[in-house]
Amino acid sequence: MSAEFWLTQLHENGYRITGARRAVVETVEKSTRALTPVEVYDMSRKRYRALGLVTVYRTLEKLEELHLIQRVHQPMGCQAFISAGQGHQHLLLCKNCGQVVFFEGDDLESLTKSIAKKTGYQIQDHWLQLFGMCANCRTN
Amino acid sequence: MSAEFWLTQLHENGYRITGARRAVVETVEKSTRALTPVEVYDMSRKRYRALGLVTVYRTLEKLEELHLIQRVHQPMGCQAFISAGQGHQHLLLCKNCGQVVFFEGDDLESLTKSIAKKTGYQIQDHWLQLFGMCANCRTN
DNA sequence: ATACTTATTGATAATGATTTTCATTACCGA
DNA sequence: TCGGTAATGAAAATCATTATCAATAAGTAT
Ligand SMILES: [Mn+2]
Ligand SMILES: [Mn+2]
Ligand SMILES: [Zn+2]
Ligand SMILES: [Zn+2]
Hints:
The structure is a homodimer. The first copy, chain A, is α+β, with helices and mostly antiparallel strands. Chain A has 2 domains: about 80 residues, Winged helix-like DNA-binding domain superfamily/Winged helix DNA-binding domain (Arc Repressor Mutant, subunit A); about 50 residues, Dna Ligase, domain 1, CATH 3.30.1490.190. Helix content of chain A is about 40%, strand content about 25%. Chain A contains 6 helices and 5 strands. In chain A, strand 1 and strand 2 form a beta hairpin. Chain A is globular, with a radius of gyration of 18 Å. Chains A and B meet through helix 5 and strand 5 of A and helix 5 and strand 5 of B. Bound molecules: manganese (II) ion (2 copies) and zinc ion (2 copies). One zinc ion (ZN) binds next to helix 6 of chain A. Chain A binds a DNA duplex through helix 2 and helix 4.
């Protein structure tokens, strides 16, 4: 899942490849923690000086639409984005440094069945997110 | 968990009981779906005409601080609040009408242990939220 | 390569949500 | 009942996001 792939995806969906988009894509794609639009702006401007914040918003919008990135919800705010996981995956976030890891293998089958029976709801979706302290932050 | 209890909590924590707070508390406490500040404002103004939106923000802030309400995160936005569940509970939300139900009994013990070993993270917390269709919305 | 069409851009303005300021009001303990 | 002061609402300020628009440049056709 390289920056080139993201650019290809943009192109294949009728969007043009521009310097501004290249900069944003390269910044977001390689980040291992969720970034806010302003963070993306600041970091991408080192690659493409003329970049405007508005273009960051517009590019993030398109990347989300193509499922290349996803919004990350946190206690402190919900406007950060990270490279999307593939398939059915959930996030594990370091409370200290924000480092993100994806995991899979959660089995909520029996739980949802039981809750569905108890509540009368037809359960369709779930959000699961783990918070903790990464190995690095734990030692330092 | 009545409105009177909430007012008592406010009082016991050094806050005064006012008409504005009464109105907000009564509105939020009895709602079975998450409400945004403006929704709280509109609904509470029927009880207390002179209410200002700023006071709604300030009251919600205090109620959250006292753990009487909690923020609800949803795909469409994360600025809505609902009466908090007691103990370790999670939310089940109707995608159609927003009706909220709390549930407990989720067991993520083995999952978190496995993820902790795999990632090196020390896992401290989790967010779990279910989405679906309530019995009412399903029949109508 | 060159010209041309039009998507994209960044600056600017507009909007919307939340917070701050401040003079006035009213809660509540003495 | 009174007085100190927390709380209030109006207005202004701030912050995040979105809309407008003329200039630019990506990509296609020539
Ligand atoms: Mn959220
Ligand atoms: Mn749980
Ligand atoms: Zn960390
Ligand atoms: Zn419903």
